[in-house]
Amino acid sequence: MSDILQAMSKRARAAVPSVDAVALDDAKLHPVPDQDQQDEFSKIGTRVLREKKPAHGYVLAVASNVSGEGGSFVSYNLARLLSIGLGQRTLWIDANFRSPHPRLRLQESGTLAEYLEAPGRSLERESVGMLSVMAGGLDLETRKAELASDNCRQVFRAFSEQYDFVVVDCPPILEAVETAWLGSAADGMIVVVEARRLKSQIVNHGLRLLKEQNVRVLGTVLNKRRYELPKAIYDRV
To answer: Is 166 helix (H, G, I), strand (E, B) or coil?
Structure first.
């Protein structure tokens, strides 16, 4: 049975150490979804596509409420689906400075931290291929001020001119105030919730924090959902 249930609102449409970008298919930073999961990702991707305007790309932030809910898995594989499955030039940014991916942790150049320090450089960056990845950088956590400044918006805006989608993997909402800043600089955010793990009060608290920063929440993704009834029945509801 599927481990991911797409619950978004109706509104919503090489080697890793490479400096600028790598093919996510080759990088294999996270497990590839099984067939049921891929079907759910396809539904999410289709909804996200409805959000994108023809004139420029769309910056999508993805975050869970607390660590361990699968936010990085969802963001990575959504980026992979948008590019490989839906033909969209996509950039996946590992901005989760609380828990950066081990294979990207030591990358020093061509990182988000580097572009935040000098936003003008992001205009010089060239997209490579349909599917790219960017590390947050060793010093991303020390550049929290830039995440709250206009620098972050400038960088995201520049990337949206080069890619159809920019998917930003963020730290957990309740563990880093910077996640709300990243979400505010993005065009929209998806919140990942692990089924049966958190109480609704905690989830709602995270959503309130995002609302206070004027983050546009597109919807939520339930991760590790277990169906009490046959999945076919849920699909009809």
So the answer is: strand
Kindly give the confidence (pLDDT) of every residue in the chain, 237 residues in length, as a single tens digit, with 9 standing for 90 and above.
333 333 333 333 322 222 233 444 455 677 777 777 788 888 889 889 999 988 889 999 999 998 888 899 999 999 999 998 889 999 999 999 988 888 887 777 889 999 999 888 887 777 667 888 999 998 888 888 899 999 999 999 999 999 999 999 999 999 999 999 999 999 999 999 886 655 678 788 899 999 999 999 998 887 655 444 444 543 554
* Token pair for 166: 């920019």
CATH assignment of the domain containing 61: 3.40.50.300
The answer to whether the pTM exceeds 0.70 is yes
CA atoms of 200 and 196, how far apart (whole Å): 9
Number of domain units in the chain = 1
Could you give phi then psi for residue 222, rounded to 5 degrees?
Answer: -85, 120
Range of the domain at 161: 4-236
